[in-house]
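Predict both folds.
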Amino acid sequence: VQLQAFGGGYVQPGGSLNLSCQIFGLNKDDYFIAWYRQPPGKVLEGVACMAASDGTSRYLHSVKGRFTISRDNAKNTVTLQMNNLKPEDTAVYYCYTRRPNGMHYWGRGTQVTVSS
């Protein structure tokens, strides 16, 4: 199983970015998905996640109403739409998935920089 994330970049405050994560090697849609991030000098934190069972999503408080996680099971992709970005959203973003058997996988990070 491999995860490939892309879509990061540089954006001014108030701008938008769409992160995508292509998942290779999983043929079912029964896996938990999430996005994490690690701001400079800080610990890793969960940003958004989506349950496999019912598609329920949860968000870090500071991104609620600005970020949206979604999945396309047909394409095995996970996206994170980020709107109204703020400088404090600057971080390396990682996609993550966990299978029902407990095995989990991380994608390589993609840098998001929000600055004027």
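Second protein follows, with its predicted structure tokens after the sequence.
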Amino acid sequence: VQLQASGGGLVQAGGSLRLSCVTSGFNFDDYSIGWFRQAPGKDREFVASIVSGGTVNYADSVKGRFTISRDNRLKTVYLQMNSLNSDDTAVYYCSMWQRYWGQGTQVTVSS
């Protein structure tokens, strides 16, 4: 099982980024995928998840700003992040069942 996260970077407050999580090694259609993040000095926290049928769930802190989606053909999950603020600065990880993790991608929001 492999998950490869990408798309992070440096963005100004109010800006947008789209993260991608490309997966392989398992039957993507059957599993939910989640995004998590870890800011310096803080615990890793849940951001969003999407199940195989398309039902989504978001942390309260990102509702209305972030959108998670999946492309079953490409075995990829996306996280569209809008209206970013400094509290969103973190390393973002994608995960399958919190058992398998991608390597993380850094998101830095400058104020």
